[in-house]
Specification:
Largest sheet: 5 strands, mixed
Number of helices: 10
Strand order of the largest sheet: 1-2-3-5-4
Radius of gyration: 43 Å
Helix content: 55-70%
Number of strands: 5
Structural class: alpha+beta
Length: about 400
């Protein structure tokens, strides 16, 4: 039939195990109620009959369905027990096994109103049963005690299972939360790697293009500069390869027996002079200034400063058609300001992912980055502010 749900394998397995468990309990109870029939009886007592044994078995059979209908099973057990008591003169039982198991099941599985109604029913049945049997207070107190114990054990089992379910649900929720956090971390790491790859390749390729375009002109007009241009191309390419190998080495998982992948620290403000020299080799005039009191920075913050300057210079080389660029690091007590200003074409000259990456890098450290016209509306300026959290593990700027 369309729309009908197909039972899941684990649900079917759980149902089979539940039926098997109930059948096993019924067999154990049957063994217990059989003992008075096989133990030799006194000569003054009436003999045990098959009819009495059949009625005894009739009180046990409903226990197989005790989890499906606990209240109905208890009523059936009590009714069968009353039929046994009033119709046959068979052996008695040391304990009301079937009634205790059924009452325990009601206490474990039934709702509060059903439990209250059943408790009143059982209490009402205990008094006439004891009066019909011995009528002694000792038997009455014992009967009340064992049924109260069965009820208490049922509630304890219910509470324990509820606790286990809550712990399992919590474990599943934690697993889902950890998986989501791992996916977010992986997505963040992919974004970080994409930014790093973009910065490295974009900067290197831009400088190489500028140098390659200037090479033929230098060969014709100033041969002595041509060699320097090609040397700059080679140096830029080698530097890009070193940085890419370093990044890929971090990502690579070394197999047993393999030579460990090379590891190197992230770039820092201390590496900016070499970066600026490579940019100068392309013919761009670069001024570098550091103000305030430089102090050690966390490695991640230092790498961000380097990458912001690198990407800003890449945009200048690729888009600005500038002659001059100024890079300034301003150290204040609570923040570090990075400013890259050129005298090029101004706003609208820079597009793409570079500025987005700069803003993301600054935001990752709780800072901010803006880009727009330079002083007096001339050229273009990238301005980034990073909160300063000093660390003895930082890399000096």
């Amino acid at each position: 039939m369309r729309g009908a749900r197909t039972p899941r394998p684990w649900a079917l397995r759980s149902a089979r195990e539940s039926w098997a468990g109930d059948l096993l309990i019924a067999l154990l109870v049957q063994a217990a109620v059989t003992m008075p029939f096989v133990v030799p009886r006194s000569a003054d007592l009436p003999p045990a009959t098959w009819a009495a044994y059949g009625l005894t078995t009739l009180t046990v059979v409903p226990l197989v369905a005790r989890r499906r209908a606990p209240v109905a099973v208890l009523i059936a057990v009590l009714a069968a027990g009353a039929l046994y008591r009033f119709t046959v003169d068979g052996p008695g039982q040391p304990l009301p096994y079937t009634g205790l198991v059924a009452f325990y099941t009601v206490a474990e599985l039934s709702a509060s109103r059903q439990r209250l109604a059943v408790a009143v029913l059982v209490l009402a049945a205990v008094f006439p049963s004891v009066a019909w049997n011995t009528g002694e207070a000792r038997e009455l107190l014992f009967s009340l005690f064992v049924f109260a114990a069965a009820y208490a054990f049922g509630r304890f089992t219910h509470t324990r299972k509820a606790y286990i379910r809550a712990m399992e649900d919590r474990a599943r929720q934690l697993e889902v939360t950890h998986r989501i956090e791992a996916e977010r971390a992986a997505a963040g790491e992919r974004a970080r790697i994409a930014r790093e790859m973009h910065d490295i390749l974009s900067h290197a390729v831009s400088l190489m293009i500028v140098q390659a375009e200037a090479g033929p002109v230098a060969v014709r007009t100033a041969p002595e500069r041509a060699e320097a241009a090609f040397d700059a191309i080679s140096e830029t390419g080698r530097d890009a390869m070193v940085q890419l190998r370093r990044m890929l080495g971090v990502l690579r998982e070394d197999a047993p027996g393999d030579t460990p992948s090379p590891r190197a620290p992230q770039p820092s403000p201390a590496d900016l002079p070499a970066l600026l020299d490579r940019v100068r080799s392309g013919g761009l005039e670069v001024t570098y200034a550091v103000t305030g009191l430089p102090r050690p920075l966390p490695a991640a913050t230092g790498a961000t400063v380097y990458r912001i300057v690198q990407e800003a210079l890449t945009n200048v080389v690729r888009h600005a058609r500038a002659n001059r660029v100024t890079v300034e690091l301003a150290h204040a007590p609570a923040e570090l300001t990075v400013t890259v200003t050129d005298d090029g074409r101004g706003p609208g000259a820079t597009t793409g992912l570079g500025l987005v990456g700069i803003r993301e890098r600054a935001a990752a450290h709780g800072g901010r980055a803006t880009a727009g016209p330079g002083p007096g509306g001339r050229g273009f300026q990238v301005f980034a502010t990073l909160p300063l959290v000093t660390s003895p593990e930082g890399v000096g700027s």
